[in-house]
Design brief:
Low-confidence stretches: none
Shape: extended
Structural class: alpha+beta
Number of helices: 4
Strand order of the largest sheet: 1-2-3
Distance between the termini: 89 Å
Strand content: 5-15%
Number of strands: 3
Largest sheet: 3 strands, mixed
CATH class of one domain: Alpha Beta
């Protein structure tokens, strides 16, 4: 047991001896080279190439995203607070993109579907709501007998 511990101490000492002596911090992800400002990579010069639109994230896009999150939160809060709606209607999926709200999920009735859409329109305005809510088809309580 002592020989194994001694071996680790010796190996650690040899590794420490091989490290470069520098007052600069070592960046291990930079292959052990000193992390000096003069050695840091500079950004490439403007090549005139366009950045794809899906990779751009401008300040206005971030603000729009924040506004979308607020709209979604406001809609969810209003739906959950409305006790006249069924549980399914209070828990529909709400997605907001550029101020346009899309509702998805199942509700128990056409009444719930309409009530949810109206409530959301009160919050975001008419014409900004896509109602993709579905109402399950009700099965007839009487089964028809085959053969008549």
């Amino acid at each position: 047991m002592r020989s194994v511990a001694l071996l680790f101490l010796i190996a650690g000492g040899l590794l420490a001896a091989q490290q470069p002596k520098s007052s600069q911090p070592i960046d291990m992800q930079n292959q052990g080279r000193p992390n000096k400002p003069s050695e840091m990579k500079k950004p490439p010069a403007d090549t005139g190439q366009q950045i794809p639109a899906d990779r751009k994230r401008t300040v206005s896009a971030k603000q729009a995203h924040a506004a979308d999150l607020k709209i979604t939160a406001d809609v969810r809060k209003a739906l959950r607070a409305d006790e006249s709606l069924s549980l399914a209607a209070r828990n529909v999926r709400v997605t907001t993109v550029n101020g346009e709200v899309t509702l998805r999920g199942r509700v128990n009735s056409e009444t719930d579907k309409t009530a949810v859409a109206r409530k959301v329109q009160d919050i975001v305005g008419t014409g900004k709501v896509t109602n993709d809510l579905t109402v399950p088809a009700h099965k007839s309580p009487h089964k028809s007998e085959p053969g008549g």
